[in-house]
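Milestone M4 deliverable, item 7.
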Amino acid sequence: MNEAVGPVRSLEAAYYTDPQYFGQELLGVFSRCWQYAGHRSALQQPGDYFAFEIARQRLFCVLDADGEVKTFYNVCQHRAHELVSGQGHAKQLVCPYHAWAYDLSGQLITGPNLNAVPGLDKSKICLSSVRTEEFCGFIFVNLDPEAEPMDVWYPGVREQLREFVPHIDSLQPIKTVTIPEKCNWKVSVENYSECYHCKINHPTFATGVIKPQTYDIQPQGYCLRHTTECQNLNRMTYPIDLDSNEHAGDYSSWFLWPTFSFQVYPGNVLNTYQWQAHDHENCTVYRHWYTIDGQLSDVIDKLADQDRATTVEEDIGLVEAVQRGLNSRGYVPGPLVLDPKYGVNSEHSIAALQQWMRAGTDLNFQYHAVED
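Output delivered:
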């Protein structure tokens, strides 16, 4: 006789409240997964650069002389001073501490009085590089030099994005909404990754853009693909040319584990989510909005403001209340609702997500291609 199979339960509270778990994630998730660095439009000419941080490692992207995006650890190979800060342009990468200079490929060129160093071979001194990919105009990096390519991690996403946003290569960011949240980054990501709560908590989203009874979220490699039919397109606050292309009237979203999501609204309007984890109980979400060639747009401004005042504001209250609840001694991890028919009232996406979360704290776990 087969034993009865019990419910799949949510993660233990310690995954969200214990700083030790966060320390393991710095090594097991943020240091071994693909993470968003910045938009390609920030690098127009050779020598353009911008600095950023991932897994508490300071990095920078630069456009080299051949027009290729390179990423390096932001540290001079002499005595460890940071090389650059913010965003700018440089013909050479010159350390502000002792003026050691590197070319745009990271190779040491010169430094004061280097001729006095016996046996010095400058050709063997180079900045430490980081695995980098361009993905539909977005720059991603992975601190693991052996990581499989993004198309293996997120199969089909590149092609689907181009179908939903035919002009994606012409987009530039024009507006960013910064959202501090007093919760563990995984609480915020989980909230984004299910719509079980939408009808109750997001009246604008659930009655405007999406048709809740058709909403579904399915794993696609290390991607969670959100799909739905749309409703009330005639009530949208901006014009939509439904004849412009196949997906002009559609909504879809692609969450790329662990901290980035592409989201397309009707009218092929692209916006993105980017999560930055600060510690075990604080994160920031960045909502980026884009237009062709970075043209200013009243439509995008109004959409971003409406989104911030409704769905975003509603989610802040939810995720911060969850974090407080996870710190309660009375919390016992509850069962996930795994409906065999999937759909909006199922938490299959959370079950998949929490598998990746568990794996991320196992430093012996190897990320590899996953089957849907």
